[in-house]
Amino acid sequence: MNINKLETFITLSHCLNFTEAAERLYCSQPAVSMQIQSLEEDLETRLFDRIGKKLYLTKQGELFKPYAEQIVNLLQAAKEHLHQMEDMSAGTLSFGASNFVGVYLLPSMLAQYKAQFPNINISMKITSSQQLTQLLESNGVEFLVLSDHIPIDETRFYASTFQQDHLVFIAPPHHPLAQQDMCTLHDLQHETFLMKPDHSATRHFLDQKLGQAGIAISNTIEISSLEGIKQGVIHGLGIAAVSGLAVKQEIDSGLLVKIPMEDVTFERGIRYIFHKNKHLSPAARQFIALLDAAAHRA
Questions:
Q1: For the chain: N or C, fewer Cβ within 10 A?
Q2: For residue 139, which of 75, 66, 64, 73 has the smallest C-alpha distance?
Q3: Please, what sign has the CA dihedral across residues 146, 152, 157, 161?
Q4: CATH number of 164-268: 3.40.190.10, 3.30.70.1170, 3.40.50.300, 1.10.600.10?
Q5: At what angle do helices 59-86 and 282-297 cross, to 10 degrees?
Q6: What is the spatial distance between Cα 69 and Cα 267, in angstroms, rounded to a whole number?
Q7: 31-51, pLDDT tens digit by residue?
Q8: How far, rounded to the nearest angstrom, does the alpha carbon of residue 109 sit from its chain's CA centroid?
Q9: Model confidence, pTM
C-alpha cells in the first residue's frame, strides 16, 4: 500500500465523484478507479458503493477514513518537521482554535510570531470544539487553543493553561442596569439574554455558572454568532455575558458598557492541548513558547 492510494481515497471520500476527484488530483478518472480498486484489494474490503448514479462510503470506508487521514497527515507533518529542524525560514504552523480565542486573543500573538518568523506559513482553523477535537484526532492540526471548560481525555492529551478569560455582562449605554452603581445576579434574571444555542460550549459554561448561583434565565434570544450577539446588545435587543476579550474595543469606544456586578466572577482558563506522544514541529514549539511567555507576563 502506498501513500498515493490513501490520498486518492481521502479525496474521493470527500467529493464522492470520480470525475471531480480526478480533477482535484490532476489525473484521469480511470487512474482514480484503479487506485481505489487496488486499495480495496489491499484491505480485502469494499470502501465505496455505487447506488444508481451516486457514490457512497461503505461502513468499512467510514471506519477506514480517519485512519487514512491520520497516516497522510502524519507523513506530511514529518516532512515539515524535518525541514524546520534545519531551517525555520520555511514551513507551516498549523493549529485549531475556538471562536473567541482565535478571533480576539491570538491575532496579536500571531503578529509577534510572524515578526520573528516571517517565512513560516500560518494556518489557524477556527471552528466548534467538536470539530477541533476531530482535527486533533486525525492529525489535521498539531495542537489546539481553547477554553478549559471543554473536556478532554487527560490520559491521552497534554494541556497547559496560559491565560485567564473573564466573562463580563454587557448592555448598551442607555440600559437601566448600566446606570446603577452595582448589580447582583438577581437583578439580571428578568432581563432578555442574548445567548448562543444550547449545544455551544460557552452556553453550557454560562448555564452552569448561573445555575450554581441559583439564577434561572427564562427570556432568551439565541444567536449562534458572537458578533451577532454583540450587535444585538448594541441595538438594544437585550444583555449578554461574553468574553471580556471579545468586547474590549466596543467598551473602549462606548458602544457597549460593562454592567457593574457585585461579587461575581465568571472565569475560565485558556489552554493549549496536544497529544502526549506528539512530536511537535519546531514551528509549533516556538509558538507555544510564546503562549507560555504570555502566561508569565500575566
A1: C
A2: 73
A3: positive
A4: 3.40.190.10
A5: 80
A6: 36
A7: 999 999 999 999 999 999 988
A8: 16
A9: 0.67
